[in-house]
Specification:
about 0% helix, WD40_repeat_dom_sf, WD40_repeat_CS, coiled coil, mainly beta, Coronin
Length: about 450
């Protein structure tokens, strides 16, 4: 009898465990900017955290292996003249990161594998097109060099960072945009806005294809993310200021697939979604807990699994791509929790006795190779992410290393302000330095055809 009541799921016993004290990153002055972003971005190589800085904006980039106390003189990434609001690692190159700032610009940075000896102050591309602060930066999941930015001017701009040029601009939002989320193949994105509407946008048609007024009745900020199946998972507030989560079918916005009240608290719930396992992790700003749920196609569709609790409230959170987890320990997710002065990794693990590779926990996951070039995506092509196996633990291909070469200083031709370098059809952003700096160009060779 009990067997029919208990729902079968291999993720029912997932548990969270904080890293040991010596595996944390200590003495980090986390930014105190009042902006509802995660303040943290992580990939299999680096941890990036937006930090307090005088005279502009800065963020700290650490190799994942550099645990322990961070030297107060550790070189920062500086270049913005105002506080930084959002950062995002490129999914197709672990050394490229985008940042958005109150100074109305977004910048693209190349982070070297070695520890820099002085602050990094020269971005490889500066994206100028917004008239107010840039609060959201988000890379396209499958197309190379495509970046979305959203600003407090209620404008969404999609850039080809290989040329530094805006290629799509959308002015469909009458008020502040809270968040943006691409779908699985990057054909659509959804947004939440201060006007209390949830919108689904087709960027290449430059139109809103579906919208829903007040998926959550409260007036406080909402968040929305696409699931792998194309549904939209939302977090928000009820009219009585209770926190709430919902699951919606964008082809039929009238009724939610699921709507669930959680608790009464002021912190905005930041959702982090794992498309491989269909688990979503909810991290409230100012909370000291992480709740996680499984999304399935059977009622009640959003199933509560468990809660990881600690004593310290979180200032922000980073979410590791699946190719950065430790498959030998059955780790299915890793979050990086920001405290006031440190960053603490939290591992989500499925308890298994076997030491063998658990292929049911690790389906092939999105790899670092882009499925499309910018021109192909603009012309209307859609491709799912190119998948890689985690069976032997993910190892990045060596041929993806960037080679930076100095331009011939005796070249008499005037250098353009922005250009694009390409080898074998592969392109990466290049920007010309001013008269004080030698011009740098970047080339990258494609991974060899297997």
């Amino acid at each position: 009898m009990s067997r029919s009541i208990v729902r079968q799921s291999k993720f029912r016993h997932v548990f969270g465990q904080a890293a040991k004290a010596e595996q944390s990153y200590d003495d980090i002055r986390v930014s105190k900017v009042t902006w509802d972003s995660s303040f943290c971005a992580v990939n299999p190589k680096f941890l990036a955290v937006i930090v307090e800085s005088s005279g502009g904006g800065a963020f700290l980039v650490l190799p994942l292996s550099k645990v322990g106390r961070v030297d107060k003189n550790y070189p920062l990434v500086v270049g913005h003249s105002g506080p930084i609001l959002d950062i995002d690692w490129c999914p197709h190159n672990d050394n490229i990161l985008a940042s958005g700032s109150e100074d109305t610009t977004a910048m693209i940075w190349q982070i070297p594998d070695h520890t820099p000896t002085r602050p990094i102050s020269e971005p490889i591309v500066v994206l100028e097109g917004h008239s107010k602060r840039v609060g959201i930066v988000s890379w396209h999941p499958t197309a190379r060099n495509i970046l979305l930015t959203a600003g407090s001017d209620n404008l969404i701009i999609i850039w080809n960072v290989g040329t530094g040029e805006p290629i799509i601009s959308m002015e469909d939002h009458p008020d502040l945009i809270y968040n943006v989320s691409w779908n699985h193949n990057g054909s659509l994105f959804c947004t939440t806005c201060k006007d209390r509407r949830l919108r689904v946008c087709d960027p290449r048609k430059r139109e809103v294809v579906a919208e829903r007024l007040a998926p959550h009745e409260g007036i406080r900020p909402m968040r929305a993310i696409f699931t792998r199946e194309g549904n939209i998972f939302t977090t928000g507030f009820t009219r009585m200021s209770q926190r709430e989560l919902g699951l919606w079918d964008p082809t039929n916005f009238e009724e939610p697939i699921a709507l669930l009240e959680l608790d009464t608290s002021n912190g905005v719930l930041l959702p982090f979604y794992d498309p491989d396992t269909s688990l979503v992790y909810l991290c409230g700003k100012g909370d000291s807990s992480i709740r996680y749920f499984e999304i399935t196609d059977e009622p009640p569709y959003v199933h509560y699994l468990s809660t990881y609790s600690s004593k310290e409230p979180q200032r922000g959170m980073g979410f590791m791509p699946k190719r950065g987890v430790d498959v030998s320990k059955c780790e299915i997710a890793r979050l990086y929790k920001l405290h006031e002065r440190k960053c603490e990794p939290i591992m989500m693990t499925v308890p298994r006795k076997s030491d063998l590779f658990q292929d049911d926990l690790y389906p092939d996951t999105a790899g670092p190779d882009p499925a499309l070039e910018p021109e192909e995506w603009l012309e209307g092509r859609d491709e799912d992410p190119i998948l890689v196996s985690l069976k032997d633990g993910y190892m990045p291909p060596k041929s993806r290393e960037l080679k930076v070469a100095k331009k011939n200083l005796l070249d008499p031709r005037p250098a353009p302000r922005r250009s694009m370098s390409s080898v074998d059809g592969s392109s990466l952003p290049v920007v010309a330095g001013d008269s004080r700096h030698s011009r740098m160009s970047m080339t990258v060779t494609k991974a060899s055809q297997r």
